[in-house]
Design a protein that fits this description.
196 residues; Nuclear Transport Factor 2, Chain: A; two-stranded antiparallel sheet; 7 strands; elongated
């Protein structure tokens, strides 16, 4: 059932190609033989393909919502927009002793000093949450000298996203895991060293 849901809603291209080929074969058979069955099969394949395309376009799955959230976060970091990033962080954010207010301070300081681009995330859905692993490549923001240690120019982070009461998927926790684990407090100390 999960495979069918994936093929119909999240990645219908495979089914559309199969339906298109079946419609083509049935259409050729109909043109050559004039068979009513071949005509019905060709029209049915086309109708199912059009319906599948509409359904896949109209239905936004949880996976697509998660990807939309991650894309918005990556755009915010790339553009240095702390408010847009924090909109994607849940009010229930918790990372050890750090809550959303601590993270907000780190984010606001960091996005004055650095910009980053994100690589494609790896998303796992073990339950009602989504575990995300993603790599960010950092560089100094315009007008700032490089202050991040070289080993932190490429950081892998792991986060957990969950659906908030409003139905949106938001970040509930995050930890930098490579090159080594770093807490928001440690990140804040690095950033304060580079403050003018």
């Amino acid at each position: 059932m999960a495979l069918l849901k994936y093929l119909c809603f999240e990645n219908p291209l495979t089914l559309l190609v199969v339906l298109g080929l079946a419609a083509l074969v049935a259409g050729i058979a109909w043109m050559r033989s004039g068979s009513k069955r071949a005509r019905i099969a060709a029209v049915a394949c086309l109708a199912i393909g059009v319906s599948l395309t509409f359904v896949a376009w109209a239905v936004e799955t949880d996976h697509e919502k998660i990807v939309r959230t991650l894309d918005a976060m990556a755009r915010a970091v790339k553009n240095g927009d702390a408010d847009a990033l924090l909109e994607r962080v849940s009010d229930r954010y918790q990372n050890g002793a750090s809550d959303k207010s601590v993270l907000a301070g780190v984010v606001r300081t960091a996005l004055k000093q650095v910009r980053a681009t994100a690589e494609m995330p790896v998303i796992e859905r073990p339950d009602d949450t989504a575990k995300v692993t993603q790599v960010y490549r950092f560089r100094p923001a315009p007008g700032w000298r490089p202050l991040v240690p070289r080993e932190y120019e490429r950081v892998t982070w792991e986060g957990v996203l969950a659906r908030d009461p409003d139905g949106e998927w938001r970040l509930r926790s995050a930890t930098a895991t490579q090159p080594r684990r770093i807490t928001p407090e440690e990140a804040e100390r690095y950033l304060q060293r580079g403050a003018p």
